[in-house]
Amino acid sequence: MPTIADVATIVRSKNAGPFKITFDIFFESTDAYRRAKKRGVISRDSVSRLYSVPGEDILGIYELDDLDAIKISMKRPLPAGDISDTDTHGSQQHAELLRIEI
Amino acid sequence: MRDGLTVYTVHGQLGYGVSRKSMARAKEDFDIDVLAADAGSIDSGPHYLGTDRANPAEKMIERDLRIALKARDELDVPLLISSVGTSGSDAQVDKTVDLMERIAAEEELQFKYSYIYTEVDGSVLKDAVRRDAIRELDFEKELSTDDIDESDKIVAMVDEEPYVESLENDVDVVIGGRSIDVAPFAALPIKQGYNRGLSYHMAKIIECGPIGADRKSGAKSMVGEVADDFFEVVPPEGRATTESVSAHSLYEKTEPDTIYLPTGEVKLTNSKYEQVSDRRVRVEGSEFRESEVTTYLLEGVRLVGYRTISIGGVSGPEMAAKIDEIADAVEEQVDHLMKEDEDYHINIRKYGHDAVGLFDTGTGPLTCEELGIVIDSVGETQKIADKACKIAKVAFLHHEFDERYNTSGNMAFPFSPTEFSVGEVYEFSVHHLLEATSSEAVYELRYGEIDRWGVEAG
Question: Rounded to whole angstroms, how far apart are CA atoms B134 and B155?
Fold first, then answer.
């Protein structure tokens, strides 16, 4: 079964300030984007399960028709720079998204 | 209708290598009205504000500043730089002003300058807490007076106001402390009365330099041209596309259609992007909505300890299979040997297993035989951190376990010495919004002048 990795050109994560993290998925075609939208593969529910976070930690999921892109914003489990931080820029947290089946 | 105003982005992050070629191209192809650069970022974490250290190498900062000052002199336009020295701390403002003066003397440049201090005293914030003028952002807790007392340094992110004031006083160079990243780019357009929504949105796109351009087109910097009803962006080389520009509006932002600013917000809901040439994008429809109160974002840090690390590798399936057990045993051993009153925290980071993920997503079965291990120790003092790290390293090296074959030692160290004192560790202690009654509370603007006979303080 195809995954996001097969139909996306950019899948990235980055801090939005020290307490939040934002993910952007840019699909390779409007078709792929619409299919993902229709099947609801990226939802508050699915993201919550995928990243093991409570629903209320998810700030928003945005569908951007003009860009064939989906944005996910959520709370960082630890603030950037916390002594147990694993990724101070938040830029390598995208792998889970690549594996989503579509 | 006015001619329009051209802003040139010297570099997306001053100190990371201004492209001389791109600048030469820009000087030739455009009628530049102002040179701007953002030199700071919170990306790098709390360490830089805490230690007053800049992220880029000093020689690189000097190189870039020299190129910018010479270009400014040649074009006779203002040069505005924000968040100097990464954190925009007062010490970095002073350091940058000193550097600027030295370069000016060496290059025989003359100009008027201003500099902006943005550190805020704890007493100002406590006063704000008392009158309920502090707001927390999403997911953050309320600011307490303890947080303020424990903070080593707090800066306010100022907007274009002190930059505009400087320009109104005929200043040629502005060295800014911590500022919103659009400040130096939007200052001249706003001073000249251009639409704020367009000015801020344009600034937001060009402040990152070439990142708003098509990443494969070879762009090295960026130009923004603002007119009465629209703005356009185009890199001196390479091209901007409607995709690259609108995609960039998503970068590092939690919401796709709003830019938050101290004095209001810019809504991008009705923004329209048009490819007006194969390299140039026109944007219109971005709207600024002024808010009743001006709110400044505050960034503050507190020292939480000192760090020591040890780096090594393990090779062999029997090691990898038992790595969690080994790490647990190491932590126990450290706990056993450290004294009751020695405050420390130990973290065995296992690269190749579960070291990168921020989220608790669980890991699959270990498939690699080689792992990278970082023993991360943070202590109340450097000595305590060193001690905990050394104990951990020895414990790791000699841990006995059932499937162990190699009794010589469990770790491959690449270096001698085997541990390194990293130094001070800071955390963000303040990241809140301050509702300001007057801007004097958050910044201090000073002037100076450089003439042929040396520096005269203003």
Answer: 14
Q: Using an 8 Å Cβ cutoff, are B377 and B385 in contact?
A: yes
Instruction: Please answer yes or no on whether B362 and A93 come within 8 Å at the CB atom.
Output: no
Q: Closest by alpha carbon to B295, among B146, B180, B200?
A: B180
d(CA B30, CA B235): 11
Give the distance from residue A31's alpha carbon to the nearest chain B alpha carbon, in angstroms. Answer: 17
Q: Which of residues 104-143 of B touch A (CB under 8 A)?
A: 137-140
**Side-chain half-sphere CA neighbours of B53 within 13 A:** 14
Q: Which residues pair with B232 in a beta bridge?
A: B225, B282
pLDDT-above-90 percentage for chain B: 84
**Best residue in B13, B41, B42, B43 for a mutation probing chain A (most A CBs within 10 Å):** B43
3-state helix, strand, coil in chain B (%, to 5): 30, 30, 40
State the Cα–Cα distance between residues B191 and B193, nearest whole angstrom. Answer: 5
Residue B316 to residue B256: CA distance in whole angstroms: 47
DSSP B349: E
ipTM: 0.93
Query: Chain A closest CA to B4's CA: distance in Å?
Result: 28
Q: What is the pLDDT of residues B111-145, one digit of tens each?
A: 999 999 999 999 999 999 999 999 999 888 899 99
Testing the interface with B: which of A22, A47, A91 to mutate, by most B Cβ within 10 A? A22
CA distances from B209 to B104, B128, B271 (A): 25, 36, 21
What distance in Å separates the CA atoms of residue B69 and residue B110, rounded to the nearest whole number?
Answer: 10
- Four-residue CA torsion sign, B381, B385, B386, B391: positive
